[in-house]
């Protein structure tokens, strides 16, 4: 009795079906069965790759489910690494350039009777009015005149303590009447004219009893170029300043000074009754503001300011032969404090002035107060308020 069509093929023949499993050589090569290449079986490569993935039992992760490597994260990591490497090479190149290109002079050295080293670190900062390197156009633009020889209008003793005391900037008045080794008594700035940086440094050490550790000198042209490189320096004037000899005519109020006006501002000594006393105050304030601007974040990240600044530094400053580039950050930090109040600023205490034949008007130090001031610096002690000279008119 038949209940339906047979389950096999209608022609009555029995057909074999491939059993899942690894293909054998006989099927692939002779019968065109499972895995045959010319009929599209498993493993076919002629028509675009595998048509069917191999079966799996679900016990693990299939090929399509394997996690891919985070290529984008690795790519960004390489980019950051390359940028950091480039920045490091640029900083290293700038450091090597400055360290080898900065002018140096033998300013500090031993001699009989030289003061012993004290606490902290002492810098002598000198502003030279040498016209060397300035052509006629530069002299006219900066109103420097054409005086020959070497002189200094600015001398500042900067003490950086090793303890928690504030750094101290002491202006040494150019007309101070002091002993110059081998030359007798004369104005302090005459030491620079007689024997350059070396004799000036020895004279300062002899007069103050402090051993100098570092020396830095800034020239006329270099000073103006640095100011221009950082985009000028902001100052606020209580009253107008008109000094034809310094080449300035500045209105009252806050303003940004370029290199030429900045040089005239720190050189001017004919706009007030205080003359030299007011000038040294301007010098300390301006130098502090300049250092703050030069080391500011806005200057460091701006290539249009940083690159000219780096290019101008070697021609602008002169260091002692024993000084190096890594000595400058502490100097810059202490000097920038003059504009923020974190550095004490004063003039060496004085008692009056007198006229000396063949020398002219000189300033006499108050020996007692001056000794108290320099003793405090030698021991990293607190500077008494009684020896701090306030600006004239305050």
List the helices and strands and how they pair.
Layout: H1 25-31, H2 71-101, E1 103-105, E2 121-128, H3 136-142, E3 152-160, E4 168-171, E5 177-180, E6 184-187, H4 188-208, E7 214-218, H5 220-229, E8 233-237, E9 241-243, E10 248-250, E11 253-257, H6 259-267, H7 276-294, H8 297-300, H9 303-316, E12 317-320, H10 328-336, E13 344-347, E14 350-356, E15 360-365, H11 367-378
Parallel strand pairs: 1-12, 2-7, 4-13
Antiparallel strand pairs: 2-3, 3-4, 5-6, 7-12, 8-11, 9-10, 14-15
Family: Belongs to the LytR/CpsA/Psr (LCP) family.
Keywords: Membrane, Transmembrane, Transmembrane helix
Domain Cell envelope-related transcriptional attenuator: 151-295
Explained architecture:
The chain is of the alpha+beta class. It has one domain (102-387): Aminopeptidase (3-Layer(aba) Sandwich), CATH 3.40.630.190. The protein is 36% helix and 19% strand. The strands form 5 sheets. The chain has a 7-stranded mixed β-sheet, sandwiched between helices. It has a two-stranded antiparallel sheet with strand order 5-6. Helix 5 packs across helix 6 (259-267) and helix 6 runs antiparallel to helix 7. The longest helix is centred in the N-terminal third of the chain and has 31 residues, at 71-101. Residues 25-50 have low confidence and may be disordered.
Short description:
The chain has 394 residues and is an alpha+beta fold. It is 36% helix and 19% strand. The strands form five sheets. The protein has a seven-stranded mixed β-sheet, with helices on both faces.
């Amino acid at each position: 009795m038949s209940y339906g069509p047979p389950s096999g093929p209608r022609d009555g023949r029995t057909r074999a079906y491939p059993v899942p499993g690894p293909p054998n050589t006989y099927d692939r090569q002779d019968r065109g069965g499972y895995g045959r290449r010319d009929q599209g079986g498993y493993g076919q490569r002629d028509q675009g790759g595998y048509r069917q993935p191999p079966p799996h039992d679900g016990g693990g992760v299939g090929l399509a489910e394997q996690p891919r490597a985070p290529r984008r994260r690795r790519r960004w990591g390489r980019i950051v690494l390359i940028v950091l490497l480039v920045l490091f090479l640029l900083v290293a190149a700038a450091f090597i350039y400055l360290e080898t290109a900065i002018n140096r002079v033998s300013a500090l050295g031993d001699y009989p009777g030289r003061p012993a080293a004290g606490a902290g670190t002492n810098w002598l900062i000198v502003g030279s009015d040498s016209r060397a390197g300035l052509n006629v156009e530069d002299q006219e633009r900066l109103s420097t005149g054409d005086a020959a020889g070497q002189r200094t209008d600015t001398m500042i003793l900067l003490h950086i303590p090793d303890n928690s005391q504030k750094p101290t900037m002491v202006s040494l008045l150019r007309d101070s009447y002091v002993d110059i080794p081998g030359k007798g008594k004369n104005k302090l700035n005459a030491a620079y004219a007689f024997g350059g940086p070396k004799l000036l440094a020895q004279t300062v050490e002899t007069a103050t009893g402090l051993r100098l550790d570092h020396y830095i000198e800034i020239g006329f042209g270099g000073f103006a170029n640095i100011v221009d490189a950082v985009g000028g320096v902001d100052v606020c004037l209580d009253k107008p300043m008109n000094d034809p000899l310094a080449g300035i005519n500045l209105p009252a109020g806050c303003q940004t000074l370029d290199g030429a006006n900045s040089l005239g501002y720190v050189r001017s000594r004919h706009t007030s009754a205080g003359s030299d006393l007011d000038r040294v105050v301007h010098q300390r304030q301006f130098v502090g503001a300049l250092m703050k601007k030069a080391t500011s974040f806005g200057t460091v990240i701006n290539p249009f300011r940083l690159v000219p600044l780096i290019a101008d530094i070697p021609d602008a400053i002169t260091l002692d032969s024993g000084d190096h580039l890594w000595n400058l950050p502490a100097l810059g930090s202490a000097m920038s404090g003059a504009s923020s109040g974190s550095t004490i600023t004063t003039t060496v205490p004085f008692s009056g002035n007198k006229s000396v034949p063949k020398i002219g008007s000189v300033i006499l130090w108050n020996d007692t107060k001056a000794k108290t001031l320099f003793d405090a610096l030698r021991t990293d002690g607190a500077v008494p308020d009684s020896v701090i000279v306030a600006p004239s008119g305050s």
